[in-house]
Design goal:
Elements: E1 2-4, H1 6-9, H2 16-27, H3 35-47, E2 51-52, H4 53-62, H5 70-77, E3 86-87, H6 89-106, H7 110-117, H8 122-129, H9 137-145, H10 167-186, H11 192-211, H12 218-223, H13 225-250, H14 264-294, E4 300-303, H15 309-323, E5 336-337, H16 347-360, E6 363-367, H17 374-385, E7 390-393, H18 400-408, H19 412-424, H20 431-440, H21 452-472, H22 480-490, H23 492-518, E8 524-526, E9 533-535, E10 537-539, H24 542-554, E11 558-564, E12 567-572, E13 578-583, H25 586-596
Parallel strand pairs: 1-11, 4-5, 4-6, 6-7, 7-10
Antiparallel strand pairs: 2-3, 8-9, 9-13, 11-12, 12-13
Helix pairs in contact: 2-6, 5-6, 6-7, 10-13, 10-14, 11-13, 15-24, 18-23, 19-21, 19-23, 20-23, 21-22, 21-23
Length: 604
Amino acid sequence: MEFVDAELRDLDVKELEGIVRLVGMLCGLRLEPSESDRALLGSMMAKADKINYEQLNEILLLLNQHRISRQFYRFFFCAGSRDCDAIDLGQFKSGVEKFRGFAMLCFGNFRFAFRKLRTAAAHEFDKEVEKYCEQSEDEINREYRNRPPMAVNIEPVDKERTWHVGYLSAAKLFKDQLTLMAIELALQQTTEEKVTEFLRNHLEKQYSHRAGVTTIDQVASTHGRNARHEAERYVSQQTDKLVQEVVRTAGSPRLRAESWRAKLDNVRGLLTQYAHELDDTRDRAKKNTDIYLTWDYMDVYVATSMREKWEYEKGFDFVREVFGKNGPLGDLNLRFFDPTQSYCPDRIDKGLIEGLMLRRAECTVYLAQETDTLGKDSELASTLAQGKPVIAYVPEFQNFEEDCADIAKQPLAFHHKRGLLLDAEDIFSEPACLDELPERVKPNLSYVREARTVSFLERKEQLFGRLRDAISRRTFNLLEDEDKVLKSELGRDYEEICQILAVAEKHYFNKRADTLKRSHPLAVQVHLDSGVAWGVLVVRNGKHCAELIRKILMNQMSFNIVHELGATQLSEEKTGCPYRVVTDNAKLTNSFWNFYLTPDTFRE
């Protein structure tokens, strides 16, 4: 670990006030020695070119502070060397700087750190500081590179199928199957009895799957007779309800059933293929979950809030970028929990599995994505509450042309959903966004330049109104060909929509990153065991995330100790994020440590 304290480095320790302030920064107090003590200290420092262990303790006693142990002196002032007889003033400053860094990392309190470590027994001292000491190559080899291979590895789920592990993917497929049956019923290509049979079989399979059995007949033997009766009642009620829905949809003129007559065979084939792929993917991902539960090591947990197909695919790409063999983590035999490769049908078991992974992992990578969710945010808070690091990844939009091309590949549901969210967040009204939109977007209206702000927002409303109209004409959720036709009908307007979203997404995610770094209430959380305030580290790309994971695991991080906004912050060098925080609020500090800790660890 490396620390830079600019305020400390600016101290002139050749002057008496500089020495007094430096000792105060070591002890965690603002010292105000008497005139006689100042005179004695001045006389002592005038005679000393270097400061040995005994002389440093004399300085501390002169300023009415406690003495330190030789181990404390060697670790902080002599880089652990036993051959260090004396230090110069530069080494004195460096030692205090190192101590302050470790004090924030380990204790979140300078005064208590000094009192705790100054006379701690060797084993107790090592226990406190070793967890933040940089690992040697031998330690890295032993802990990571030379780990025994896992007995069984997971079977990868392809990127295009990762969305099948989400709960909403099956719901979308089922909704499309209901629509298909409504069309078939309207065209007299099926009967209500066949619809009822299909739905009953589907619901029985779904219920059995959630109950952890193969067929609904096994529910009684596994969960009891009452559970079987409850299953039959549920299936019967839901079947009747869904049959009525299919019949009602079949009679709706909005269905436009006749327009699908020639395409029905193709639609049936695609939905049948999706159903087989979903079952196969979930079986594979369920086995992967069991494999994750058996691993002896778990280094990193990836926290996400994926709902849509594009979110799973972006999550898949990010995980591969971070943990790829050619990246910063490639030489380490790391184990990580990838939610795009795992499936659990039971929500309670899923919560327990994720809780276990959070408990075992050394750190959590939090994917900010489009929105905050209760699950993902609780995982962030849970990690910090355990005293473990959280790296928050917020996407960065840097290349306008590439961003437009990527957005153009997404389904219309993406554009609609993102437009609504960006509107709700008032991103289009942000001054920086408003300034950039007319420069980037090339609309067909000449009056935009004359009334820049109002006219452009009006144009944006027109475009997204056309997008809503196009989506309202969509019949199925999963048919890509239908999306392509609707995009083609939008024509040049679709290009403008993609351009607008590319600009707005850039400002939205910049705002999210800034919020996490500076003002998000979850960005600093208390470690429940120690009371130390831990902060979130924000990164904007996969390579930086991988580099930071490596630094965390190897204890190779670099920090700046800065005092601002009523607190001392231990800021990670590259991200600028507060990793530890010590407040200046004296009342809060006194009350916090009085009420928070037990008497045996009471902090002065």
